[in-house]
Specification:
Blueprint (H helix, E strand, L loop, with lengths): L2 E5 L9 H10 L4 E8 L3 H11 L4 E6 L9 H14 L3 E5 L2 H14 L3 E8 L5 E5 L4 E5 L7 E4 L14 E4 L32 E5 L9 H10 L3 E4 L1 H5 L20 E5 L5 H4 L7 E6 L12 E4 L2 H14 L1
Helix pairs in contact: 3-4, 5-8
This protein binds flavin-adenine dinucleotide.
Length: about 325
């Protein structure tokens, strides 16, 4: 079976759930080979959980520089690994960073690139969301090693314990003149809430929330459910909530088990970021709001009456 390279998303200590999803998808095409790009010691901490999720090989590319630059170290390493392993495909998460890595890698390899994949089959045919969610298409790379960016949450992660073989890669030194250096890191003020793209439950607020203070209702419901908070672009543009929580075409893509939209009309650009959620609940006072066309459960009503009742019910259980 050919290798399928999977770029590991991690925070240095633990593997992100999106990587387990990539490993499950990779198994459909060949032997999943996890590529860990990080500072020295990272792979040793992550190896066990990667092997538990089916990584038959772990490519280790560690250097002090790895944490200092955006995208370039991962692109350099993946290019090397592709030339070394001749894999069936390269899979990365379709996050902001992952998309950048995927695009740059495809150019380096002169290979076909498929972004916003939500599924792939054993013949390499990929289901993709395109034109901001307006269409779902099935595509296949016909030139070079396919580079596929899979949306977080689109594929179920699976435990599949194997013995992982460790392979060291020589890490090329980064050219600072052509690379973006990370100059500052700030902790997210999201507190104890799960990361938006990893959360099993996302509660999002839109313009209907009416103001920054109105987001308390959204946050309370999210906290009762142990979920993350999201926002529509209209809410973000109006200054109700920070941009890093925006869901949609120009924000984050989420695919939780449960997505609750409070005061969100359901513009196509918003749906593009959450339409693959397992169960969608919408609360909107306008019965004609387009979001009800996608929602599994809809409540026509005032979010300030409905959401606190939901929070109370959940908290009481
Ligand atoms: P609105 O469309 O104004 O809807 C507010 C809703 O709240 C209404 O349906 C109203 O009935 C309801 N409401 C009001 N008060 C209450 C109440 N008390 N209780 C219950 N319901 C209430 N949008 C995104 O979200 N994410 C993106 O990434 C994104 N990218 C874009 C990219 C481009 C290129 C463009 C052109 C647009 C993009 N947009 C994006 C904007 C998108 O088109 C919409 O304008 C936006 O999603 C609307 O946000 P909203 O639903 O919160 O606001």
């Amino acid at each position: 079976m050919p290798d399928v390279l999977v770029l590991v998303d991690h925070d240095g200590e633990r593997v992100h759930k999106s990587t387990y999803e990539l490993l499950a998808a990779a198994r459909r095409l060949g032997d999943p080979a996890a590529v860990v790009v990080g500072t020295p010691g990272t792979a040793a901490r992550l190896k066990e959980s990667l092997a538990r999720h089916g990584a038959t090989s772990v490519y280790v590319a560690e250097s002090d520089e790895a944490g200092e630059f955006l995208a370039t170290p991962a692109v350099d390493v993946l290019e090397l690994a592709v030339r070394d392993a001749c894999p069936a495909a390269v899979l990365v998460s379709a996050t902001t960073d992952g998309r950048e890595v995927a695009g740059r890698l495809a150019v380096r390899l002169d290979a076909g690139l498929l972004i916003d994949a939500v599924d792939l089959d054993s013949s390499g045919v990929v289901t993709q969301i395109v034109f901001g969610g307006a269409y779902t298409v099935r595509s296949e790379v016909t030139h070079g090693t396919p580079v596929i960016a899979l949306r977080p949450g689109a594929v179920e992660p699976e435990e599949h314990p194997v013995a992982a073989m460790v392979r060291e890669l020589v890490v090329p030194s980064v050219d600072p003149a052509t690379s973006a250096r990370i100059t500052d890191r700030r902790a997210s003020p999201a507190g104890d809430r799960p990361a938006l793209t990893e959360a099993a439950v996302v509660v999002s607020g839109g313009r209907g929330v009416g103001g920054a203070e109105g987001f308390t209702v959204v946050e309370e419901l999210a906290d009762a459910l142990g979920g993350a908070v999201g926002a529509s672009r209209a809410a973000v543009d109006a200054g109700y909530y920070p941009h890093r929580f925006q869901v949609g075409q120009t924000g984050k893509t989420v695919s939780p088990q449960l997505y609750i939209a409070l005061g969100i009309s359901g513009a196509i650009q918003h749906l593009a970021g959450m339409q693959t959620s397992r169960t969608i609940v919408a609360v909107n006072k306008d019965a004609e709001a387009p979001v009800f066309g996608l929602a599994d459960y809809g409540v026509v009503g005032d979010l300030f009456a409905v959401a606190p009742q939901l929070t109370e019910e959940v908290t009481a259980r």
